[in-house]
User: Fold these one by one.
Assistant:
Number 1:
Amino acid sequence: MPLLEVRNLRVSYKTYRGVLKVLSGVNLEIERGERVGIIGESGCGKTTTMRAIMRILPSNAIIEGGEILYDGKDILKMSENEFNSIRRRKFAMIFQDPTAALNPVFKVGDQLIDVLRQSRGDSGKHDRDALKDEIIAAFKEVMLPDPERVFESYPFQLSGGMRQRVCIALALLTAEELLIADEPTTNLDVTIQDQILRLIKELVDRRDLSVILISHALGAVRGLVERLYVMYAGTMVETSEVNELFRNPRHPYSRALIASAPRLTGGGVSQGIRGNVPDYLNPPKGCRFHPRCDFKTLVCELDPPGFFPAGGGGKVACYLYAEVVR
Ligand SMILES: Nc1ncnc2c1ncn2[C@@H]1O[C@H](COP(=O)(O)OP(=O)(O)O)[C@@H](O)[C@H]1O
Ligand SMILES: [Mg+2]
């Protein structure tokens, strides 16, 4: 049984323009100890998917359907209490913006002690000095200089890189099973992006965590994950072993995305692919990529394709591969 399995997840957002049908049936699986990456243009629903897993969707989000199975149990059906103990002890998420993850009005150390206490619940030790020792040790692990001073600082007194290290330290103190890192380096200075990704890799290695990494730094993704998902307009269009995906991308969107990879540095990836991610108010019927696809046939405009096995353990949501099966 996979550690986590997202099945046909559909999420919309209510807005003044109407209902945006963003996730149109996301399927994603992660085995215990496995590391997967997700790549795709911005606006494809990567963050929405991760927020759904953590049950931290914004209040205008509507879960239209689907399941998120953790150890076979649907997270979406759990009570707040039941899920809280998973969120606090088993899962952790590192966000793109480390500033938003920290409360500006409390000292870093006090916040972390608070989170640790919650995470440990009734069973853990709550003694302030002991918790502080753990936090200082974690700060050292993430190579924060002068950990005692960081502990006593307010978030604004730290640089962006230091704040992200604090968030990584916190994630590592609380995640027993799954680390979700959503563009953890996008907001950081380029000179420290590699350092942070290397740090994440080292720490998940040591702790044997499952990982979902979302990043535009394809080189780093390659070094950290075993398998990749390619996401387009609210659905996963392909999954393959990471080197295989770079060598032999199969979905027409994956091909275009990988072909435009050298241009990924600007954050946007659409330069290499004509057209844009669709408007979610009225997304295309059938395969959502069909208006941008050079290979589309009639059926592509009618029904969204499910995953077809495509060799090497890979799966592709494209009718081109339905023919391979036949
Ligand atoms: N709270 C929200 N209200 C309305 N639309 C949203 C909200 N959050 C995200 N969206 C929209 O959902 C789509 C997917 O966003 P997101 O999940 O952040 O994608 P990604 O992480 O792949 O860039 C985007 O079009 C975005 O504008
Ligand atoms: Mg995002």
Number 2:
Amino acid sequence: MKSPACSFLWQNWNMEKKKRMHDILILGGGPSGLSTALHLAKIAPHLTSRILILEKEHYPRLKLCAGGLVVDAEIILERLGLDVREVPHVDADDIRFDFAGKGLTVRVPKRHAIRVIRRDEFDHWLAKKTREAGIEIREGVKVNKIIPDESGVAVETDQGEFRAEIVVGADGSNGITRRCIFPNEPVYTARVLEVITPDYSPANDEIDPGKNINRRDAAFFDFFPVPNNIAGYTWDFPTQVNGTPMRCWGIYDTNLLADQKRPALKEPLAEEMKRHGFELDKYEIKGHPIRWYNPRNNASVPRVLLVGDAVGADPIFGEGISIALGYGALAAREIAESHRRGEFSFAGYKRRLARSGLGQALFARWFITQVIYTFKWKWFQILLWRMLKPIVLLAAWIFVLNWSKRIPQRLSPFTA
Ligand SMILES: Cc1cc2nc3c(=O)[nH]c(=O)nc-3n(C[C@H](O)[C@H](O)[C@H](O)COP(=O)(O)OP(=O)(O)OC[C@H]3O[C@@H](n4cnc5c(N)ncnc54)[C@H](O)[C@@H]3O)c2cc1C
């Protein structure tokens, strides 16, 4: 027979173990993790209280990102009943895709072309909405290792061990989940630098006479670094920091031409900023990789699903916020249906992902990436960005944008 002290310890140990056993553990509280939770709460409300999100930082936390939201991000948020206008933002009326300062302009009738948020504010807001939906988020918990087995998944953190029936790896481009479940898989990552500067002063406010564009109100992408083996572009977005208008500059390189001779990544960025009156060296430069989508990237093992950058962002631009929100919608459906069946192999997740509107858009973007960055010659880039406007816009409209409307909103009738 157990002594009273022993049985007290035993009961406490059991309670502690029970407290740490969860049905669904989401690792990472960025857009993909929060979207997975919000979609689960929407399509399978009975699972809401069984979800726990572990986030290593405390909101509002810094996240290096230019914060450009495309229309698909807004559509997904609207469908969740969320109004992103509650987050401080700047709207750009025009987007310019240039080669060395000249190119094509995109303007969307009756709406902004791109909305720019700051990620500390956006993610904090989304986390608040997730909590309001009844989902628990524990901040300041860093996941160190995950070990799936037949009966569940052990999650080792700096705050002790958790156990879950299902784990969602939403921990971003450098995440630990993918490294634990696919330790030997090839990784396709872009290198990215970002700089925040003051806004254009009225004195150096530039207006493109032909297009009637005020630089302050527009977002710019310039592909001039491609012929020099930087398979990407520089960007210049309007933004705001604590309500003050600023500019966000950066450079993105998919690394597709990494085997060729390339200048240091900051050189083309410095050149572009100088063209517009800014000295790169006066500002703080920050860098972070983006893992991009390749059809070969795997997305699950039994009991563990990956979402967001952990699977892969858009390879053309490194655009990943809308994509992360979209992965969340698909993963939630996958989890809810697995729960109904009581079977957690997630064997068809990658296939269903590939067939979804998101998967098709990602495949198209991956294919376009192979063309526009490996056909790196200056004449091809000039032709593409300056002369083929109708073709480029049509391809973007059909293959790249508007995929969010093709994401199912409900569980399939066979499992409902
Ligand atoms: C410089 C730069 C500019 C960008 N600009 C744009 C843009 O303009 N528009 C756009 O759409 N996309 C942009 N992106 C891409 C975009 O930021 C990502 O695609 C997007 O954040 C992916 O969301 P996610 O939820 O998958 O990952 P993340 O946003 O990275 O979130 C992962 C979360 O997991 C947490 N986490 C990580 N490790 C652990 C751990 N071990 N334990 C617990 N928690 C952990 C992190 O703290 C974080 O909160 C940019 C990226 C970079 C680097």
